[in-house]
Structure formats: structure tokens, C-alpha cells
Amino acid sequence: MRVLFLLLVLANSAFFAWSRFVAQSEPASDPRPLERQIDPQKLKLLDPRELRAPSQAAPKPAPVAAGAASACVEWGSFTLADAPRMEKALEPLALGARLAQRRTEETAGWWVFIPPQGSRAGAQKKSAELKALGVDDHFIVQEEGTLRWALSLGVFRTGEAAQARLTALRDLGVRTAQAGPRELQVPKVWLQVRGADAAQHSLLKDIARTVEGSELRECPTGG
Q1: DSSP states of 36-85
Q2: What confidence tens digit (pLDDT) does each residue in 160-182 have?
Q3: Cβ atoms 78, 86 nearer than 8 A
Q4: In this predicted model, what pLDDT tens digit does every residue of 197-206 receive, in sequence order?
Q5: 129, 150, 42, 147: which is closest to 139 by C-alpha?
Q6: pTM as predicted
Q7: Of 190, 211, 216, 218, whose CA–CA distance to 105 is shortest?
Q8: Of the residues 29, 84, 182, 223, which has the fewest C-beta atoms closer than 10 A?
């Protein structure tokens, strides 16, 4: 009995020591949880209203493709007298060495003209009237034949182009001009632009639209 009593005393003493010194050193909760985190100053506590579902990343804009350069386009066709003025109209494109000329001889099937005036003096008088209206692009026909002393106001490959020229002349006040067929070989100039980018090609089309009867097209193969 004496031994059993001593064992009970020792057991009670051990339990008391454990509950007094060991159990209190391991609290059930941490009173300062942020201080136990890595870099606590970088943490931010969010209000539940601030929480949102993660949004999908916005797609990146596709890169703008550079305008594809055209190998060669040409604008025409113009008389030898008109070609320098048309070249000047292309100066805003700053083409430099990319601008060239291609000369041809074309069969003009139509022309715009003022009928023969009966004499050189009559033709010269009509020429002065045209210049007073701002029409400098004309010449007096001097070859022998039924058309001598007529005034030519332009030769064209198509009737549509001739009619466009006639309409423009009427707007300037030229009342006696006519459009009609005429077969003859005429030296012409095409202005060629090589390596034009998209912006230059667009500007070239805008310029070409201001010249009645002109055409903008791809250069002939090998041209």
C-alpha cells in the first residue's frame, strides 16, 4: 500500500507540472499573425467588396502592316507639251529617281477641235480667244487639206476621254468646240513611278483624278 500511495503522489505532481509550465507555452491561437508572415509590410487586407473575379487579359493590338510597295505604276498618257506640267503635279510625292518617262506613239481615234477658221488670221484670232479663257493647250492645224486652219484642243484614244475634254472646255466658256473621230499617230508620254508605297499610291490616285481623261495603271511587263 505504501508503494501505491507514492506512485499516485508522483503522478499528480507530474500532471501539475505539465499543466503549469508546458501547456501554457503553446497557445491555441497566434495574437499577432501578420508579424509571423514574410514581408508583412507588403500585405494588404481587402474588404470583401473589393474582391472581383480576375479579368481576362486584353489582347494586344495586331501590328500595323506596312503598305506593300507596287513594283511600277504609270500615269498618262500626255502630249510632249503637257508632260512637264504633269511631272510638276507629282512633286508632293517627292519621288526623286523613282519617277521616269516612257514614250510611245499612240493611235488617236478621237479629237476635240474647233472647225477651220478659213485663214491663218482667223485661226490666230480664235487662238487668242482661247488663251483669254485660260485654254493654252491647243494648236493650229496648218497641213494642207480640209482641216487646215482648224484648232486642235486634244487627241484621245477613246470617245469618252474626248467627251470629258469637251465638257471641261464648255465649263470654261468654249462654245464652238466639237468632238469627232480622227485617226493619226501621236507621240505620248507615260509618267512611271517605281516602288511607290501605299500612301504614295493613294496620293497618286488622287492627283490622277484631277486630270480628265488620264489613266493610272500598272506598268507594262518589262516597262
Answers
A1: GSSSGGG--PPPGGG--PPPPPPPPPPPPPPPPPPSEEEEEEE-TTTHHH
A2: 989 999 999 999 999 999 999 98
A3: yes
A4: 888 888 999 9
A5: 150
A6: 0.46
A7: 190
A8: 29
